[in-house]
Specification:
By secondary structure, this protein is an alpha/beta fold. The chain folds into two domains: 2-77, no CATH class; 98-247, 2-Layer Sandwich (Nucleotidyltransferase, domain 5), CATH 3.30.420. The chain is 47% helix and 15% strand. The protein contains nine helices and six strands, in the order αααααββββαβαβαα. Strands 1, 2, 3, 4, 5 and 6 form a six-stranded mixed beta sheet that branches. Helix 2 crosses helix 3 and helix 5 (79-96) packs parallel to helix 9. It is globular.
Length: 273
């Protein structure tokens, strides 16, 4: 854990220096310390910022730690920097992915239990209610749409309401990938129009085909695509392992920042174990 904390701090500090980010000279701690504490919370404390804040102070990693309220304000202020760090790691994974094979999928992130939907203050409305077909259950909250390499490293993600279908999510992905890359996914990502557009751009989308598909693929290709999908399922399991039973948040933005932190923590886990 000590080695991982030091490595996370070095990663955050180097990124801030690379983008020429400057801290306020009057600030008690730098943004690198704030980012490190938040990432440690996602890695080891189920996203509990307060436990991570106390841990970092008691063990001497950040002796001049901010109080609970001030740290929370700084944490929200640097939210965009977490996305920058995720993008930076994503570029690294794309460079290392010599096979240029990528996989897409979505995972439910529940904001509350089903029987508490009527009392949920974070989100209101039926657009947040989704269905998880693999477990045959409904959930209420967000969907995490993820693009990973063949080895499972996260490259791109975005959040959507729970009712958002994977087919619609396909239209939101940027697919900023090297020319000649191949992208696969489950049967829900079948959209021939998007496939044709992506092929023209040099990125080949080949999801698993339905039985009545007008563009069938040979059985051996279907087998390979099925084996690739196991990697994103593994990545989803790693994120689920980091998630607590309930993500504590007061506002929707706070909830979404924490979900993004778990995606970033999963990417860092591939870098520092």
């Amino acid at each position: 854990m000590d080695t991982q904390i030091v490595a996370v701090f070095c990663l955050c500090d180097d990124m801030l220096k690379a983008i020429h980010h400057r801290d306020d000279p009057q600030s008690q701690i730098g943004n690198a310390e704030v980012m490190t504490t938040a990432i440690v919370a996602a890695l080891h404390f189920g996203g509990n910022i307060e436990k991570a804040r106390v841990h970092m102070q008691e063990y001497g990693y950040v002796p001049k730690m901010l109080g609970k309220s001030r740290f929370n304000r700084r944490f929200h202020r640097v939210a965009d920097l977490f996305l920058s760090l995720f993008s930076l790691l994503g570029e690294t994974w794309k460079t290392l992915n010599e096979s240029s094979i990528y996989v897409i999928d979505s995972f439910p992130i529940a904001a509350c239990d089903n029987y508490r939907i009527c009392r949920c203050h974070l989100y209101r409305g039926e657009q947040w209610r989704g269905y998880q077909s693999s477990k045959r259950r409904f959930f209420y909250g967000l969907k995490l749409h993820l693009l990973v390499t063949q080895a499972g490293q996260p490259v791109e993600f975005f959040l959507s309401p729970g009712s958002y279908s994977d087919t619609n999510g396909l239209k939101v992905f940027h697919f900023d990938l090297p020319a000649g890359s191949k992208v696969t996914g489950d049967k829900a990502y079948t959209d021939y129009t998007i496939e044709d557009v992506m092929n023209e751009a040099g990125v080949h989308l080949s999801p698993l085909r339905k039985k009545n598909s007008t563009r069938p693929v040979p059985p051996w290709i279907h087998y390979l695509m099925s084996s690739y999908r196991k990697m994103i399922e593994t990545t989803g399991s790693l994120i689920e392992r980091l998630l607590p039973k309930h993500i504590h948040a007061v506002t929707p933005r706070g909830f979404e920042i924490k979900v993004a932190l778990f995606a970033l923590a999963c990417s860092i886990n591939y870098l520092v174990r």
